[in-house]
Specification:
heterodimer, A: 106 residues, alpha+beta, two-stranded antiparallel sheet, 6 strands, B: 452 residues, ten-stranded mixed sheet, 13 helices, 21 strands
Chain lengths: 106, 452
């Protein structure tokens, strides 16, 4: 089976705070064909997120496909609120990188 | 009705002049901007400080004020001075007064709206049995958590802003407010349906983030009709496309379908997006549901302690392979003197080059770089203690005992043998919703005449 890493298929892969207790991830595609391909493959799934980020299912609070924006979007709950002592990423802006290498069957 | 949105966070970085002037030439019916966010962390609210330089805040307020007064249309700014505390509202009101004097502006009505809530007020409501429900999986608010909170603001809805406009306000400076409510308020007051008004606010609140290519601090205009909102980029190089506007619906939100505001929820599940000209996208199909009980969001921040930071580098590959043992050694030396971390102190090792950004979620944690940067962060109630704990936790990286280490003259490179004082550590203690009998009961609107 041939695969391509997600970073080669997506136009945008980003992460950002959604309020003070959650970080949300957006994976946006350039065209409907690629979006549908990735959607159908089910390779980007809550299970994949659990594996990539070593987190339990309960920390994934939403996982949706958003057709108007050609986007797959999920949100995870932070372990501590943003900006607390020990914070690593106040804005949650650099948490998306592990998604790049996710293999998508094509 | 057309509303001009020049910036997604007034003062955070100066507004770009070119697209703002183009926006003003379209003769909008109001100029509106939000000036705050909970994104900046809990420190500005807890310490009641602003994180944007006052120079830039004044710059942005000046542009908006002069244009709004020239056009004779309302100017609305919310979440004044980053955290939207009473201090922020007073600060912005004073800047507006100064600007009016300096430019010799003809007299106008300035409304200030305060939404800071005292801890006693929330404690009283808790005692009377009111449930203050936690958001995003938080437990309900307790007296214990409230006691750890230094400052609270209520995130106001449209009602106090409409009240201010009804009283004749030309310029509104509001405390913490729902971003979309600042834009929705004049539209609702003008008679547009809530759904269209809140969608207008939702799409305009971050200004040029709703356009493409990606640009910050450029103006956009939203035009509302009873059943649709059209949004147009003002920068000549930017367009609002179906993709960019739809994409913005999900920006910084857990769900792209629902936007909760004080009093209800905007449902965008069935939104339809159409490109109407090269730079404009029209959106329709949104609905709005009022909540059975009016609830307002509370944000609260509490101080954890004073914060000390220091930096060390590691280059020895053997030491890097055993970095957890090195950190373990340093922690143990701190514990010998200070006991287990907890109320007396907190100690964090940020290991850049291994998992400094992602911590336990880092998939490549087992493959660290050839050199590591350790940032040691100590938090304690007293600065003197934070400083000495940080020094102890850093110097012991230098003295770590490893069985086969070759470098026996020091196991860490110190960029400087120095502890830096950071801003105190705060924590978001409150992210909850409070039921209200009257949407106006936590806010105060004051009106004054400013100018000649």
């Amino acid at each position: 089976m041939t695969t391509k890493p997600l970073v080669e298929l997506a136009k945008t892969i980003r992460s950002k705070n959604a309020g003070v207790d959650q970080i949300t991830f957006d994976v946006v595609f350039r065209d409907r064909e690629t979006y549908e391909l990735v959607k159908r493959s089910r390779a980007l799934s809550p299970e994949a997120v659990m594996r990539l980020y070593s987190i339990p299912r309960e920390r994934i609070t939403t996982f949706v496909e958003f057709d108007p924006a050609l986007a797959i979007k999920f949100t995870i709950r932070r372990e501590t609120p943003s900006g607390s002592p020990g914070e690593r990423d106040v804005f949650g802006a650099q948490q998306y990188a592990p998604l790049f290498d996710l293999p998508i069957p094509i | 009705m057309k509303i001009l949105s020049p910036t997604g966070h007034l003062g955070f970085t100066p507004i770009e002049r070119g697209s703002f002037d183009i926006g003003v030439s379209h003769r909008p019916d109001a100029i509106v901007a939000d000036s705050g966010s909970c994104d900046i962390g809990p420190q500005p609210l807890g310490a009641d400080e602003h994180c944007s330089p006052e120079d830039w805040q004044r710059h942005d307020l000046e542009l908006m004020l002069l244009a709004a007064r020239r056009l004779g249309v309302p100017m609305i700014v919310g979440s004044a001075s980053d955290a939207g505390t009473d201090r922020g509202v007073h600060q912005y009101a004073e800047i507006i007064r100064e600007l009016a004097r300096r430019h010799g502006l003809a007299s106008f009505n300035l409304a200030t709206i305060f939404s800071e809530v005292s801890r006693d007020e929330v404690a009283r409501r808790l005692r009377s049995g009111v449930r203050v429900e936690g958001l995003d999986g938080r437990p309900d608010l307790t007296q214990e958590v409230l006691a750890r909170t230094d400052r609270l603001v209520a995130v106001m809805g449209v009602e106090p802003i409409i009240q201010a406009l009804d009283q004749g306000a030309d310029v509104v400076v509001a405390g913490r407010a729902g971003d979309s409510c600042l834009f929705a308020a004049p539209a609702i007051r003008a008679g547009f349906p809530e759904a269209a008004a809140y969608y207008l606010g939702k799409v305009l609140e971050c200004a040029s983030f709703a356009g493409e290519p990606f640009m910050g601090k450029e103006s956009i205009i939203g035009a509302v009709t009873p059943d649709a909102v059209s949004v147009t980029a003002m920068h000549p190089g930017q367009r609002c496309t179906v993709a960019s506007v739809a994409s913005h619906a999900m920006y910084e939100r857990a769900s792209p379908f629902f936007e909760h505001v004080a009093g209800g929820v905007l449902d965008m599940t069935h939104c339809r997006y159409e490109q109407v000209d090269e730079r404009t996208t029209r959106v329709s199909g949104f609905t709005f549901r009022r909540d059975a009980v009016y609830r307002i969001k509370l944000e609260g921040s509490g101080k954890v302690g004073e914060r000390a930071v220091s930096i060390a580098g590691i280059r020895d590959p053997y030491t890097i392979r055993h970095i957890d043992a090195v950190i373990g050694w340093a922690r143990s030396k701190v514990q010998e003197r200070w006991g287990e971390p907890g109320a007396r102190y907190q100690l964090y090792y940020h290991v850049y080059g291994r998992d400094g950004v992602m911590g336990p979620s880092e998939p490549r944690r087992a493959a660290p770089a050839h050199e590591l940067c350790l940032v040691v962060e100590a938090v304690a109630p007293r600065w003197e203690d934070a400083e000495i704990i940080c020094a102890l936790g850093t110097r012991n990286l230098f003295y770590a005992r490893l069985p086969e280490v070759r470098g026996t003259a020091g196991t860490a490179a110190l960029m400087m043998d120095e502890v830096l004082r950071g801003k105190p550590g705060y924590e978001w203690t409150v992210n909850h919703v409070l039921p209200l009998a009257d949407p106006l009961e936590l806010t105060t609107v004051k009106l004054e005449v400013v100018g000649r």
